[in-house]
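Two folds, back to back.
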Amino acid sequence: MTKTLYLVRHAEASQSVSPDLVRPLVSNGMIDAARMGKHLASKMQGIDLILTSNAERTQMTAQVFCEQLGVDNEIVRVESALYESSPKHYLDAVNGLSEEVDSVMIVGHNPSISYFAEYLTHEEIGSMPTCGVVGMTFENLTWAEVSKKTGHMTFYDSPDGIMGIKI
């Protein structure tokens, strides 16, 4: 059985709002999230669950993705442990997933989301741009068995790489 994971760095957020937890997306971030969501809709076979941190910007990014993917926002689950966290917290979230879930998206923050993508794959990801997405699969593994270098990266997209997508 194949498990699929999409790691998303939240879209561009306001720098002028405090505290950090409540920073919303700026208009360019909303546009990038809509374009990326539409782009992903053509690539994805479906999504069972979306995990986000409790930050406003990750939840807004997830909401826009739901709209573009045509899925109900009830599949979004807020995990406060993903805010200001380490790749270990992301791994704990993945390892704790139900086996009924085959496809999951995590909307999170740099640098942890980028480090986590590199940890799971054999790829050098670097610093993911805002609204960047890394897709990966895990063959013949349960979520509890996902660990270092067990993922196969299927794509790495960014808003700059999909400029032709219209919303």
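---
second:
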Amino acid sequence: HVAATVDMLRRTTPLRLFWARDYSDYHPEQPGGSAAGRTCECRPFDTSQLGEYRTRLEPGLMEVTVPMPTTGADYRWMNLVARVPRKGIPTYGKRLTQGVGGRLLGRRYAAGGQGLMAGLFTGVLRAGIPVWTGTALTRLAREGDRVTGAVVEHDGREVTITARRGVVLATGGFDHSMDMRWKFQSESLGANLSLGAAANTGDGIRAGQDVGAGIDLMDQAWWFPAVAPLPGKAPAVMLAERSLPGCLIVDQHGRRFANEATDYMSFGQRLLQLERSGSPVEAMWIVFDQQYRNSYVFGAELFPRMRIPQTWYDAGIAVRADNLTDLGARMGVEVSEFFATMTRFNQNAAAGEDPDFGRGRSAYDRYYGDPTVKPNPNLRPLVNGPFYAVKMVLSDLGTCGGLKTDERARVLREDGAAIAGLYAIGNTAANAFGTTYPGAGATIAQGLVYGYIAAREAAREAGRHQV
């Protein structure tokens, strides 16, 4: 169904996709894994084609103040601009020209998930499909055991929308329903730390449960470690930062607890695993030296050599010291443990090894490493100060537990029987990959593919075999 979905997108939307070569699967060493990767991205898309709907787009994950539509493939080299300028500088030049030049011509380009959503929605508008915004799902309508529509609140009144072929729930997860998150995931999760859309509060999941649907994987989310936010701000995701040489992450004891370069979902799962085993990570810091700060982009806003903002220090998000002992004291960790951690890490990093957590062994780790650092692009000792530490939090891209579904996107009861007329896709359904994030784009990809499947199934049920 994947190839058919891509073909459908090419036919019905203005999107153009490309293969992000060498963007490794997140677990390439597993059976069937690929170090070359299989991620497809959309080319930067002109969102001005949406007209009045453009302002309704959710912000991008790593937006900068300068208009610069950045793909995932671009990000790798932009992040290394100070280390691999022959690739980083042309990439910046290309996207700055497109972004700034586009503005002069009345075009507003976006890439990544934002660009993809804009292209998909443009296809919807061109097809003449009616769209209701500002509409909240209240409950599902039924006739007997069959779902026949949805009751929504629209323009201040309750409206019943009848669906002869079926209802597809694609209302997102429960990212911002803290009651649900504390119940199913962890009471330690902080409010307002999810990067999911603010409207994702579990409406579709609860509506499905009300008609007898089962749920699964509710303890799971697309976890993402991030820079602790300033008051009133959103967390800044940490993607490549954790993989680059010259840094490590420690807990409140000053000890490492994970492979920093692992994929973001696995990193979050490691944190929750430690919590459930009785050894919670109560504080988390990324530690780095001046060479690291001079070499790489940090937190999507600090370019190489830029000073860490004073506001970070004032808020207690960042600390700085000329030596590691003083740094540990300012972080509030156990100084002796921290110094022992740094000593062991530096000795192993000098040899390009991480016997504790295997950092740099996976092709995924190395993808976001520094290819100019040998023998391990993910490791280098931290020797010369000043040294820095920045506080981290566990954020996420959204939850990925939800309604039980089958391979036909049909919603299932707890006993495995399908609920007639009801389908669920995306984060409203339990993750099709179980507890795994197999590769970049897996969140959106399964929503697209199962959306295609659900539409075909609904049409087939109604006696129509072409979508």
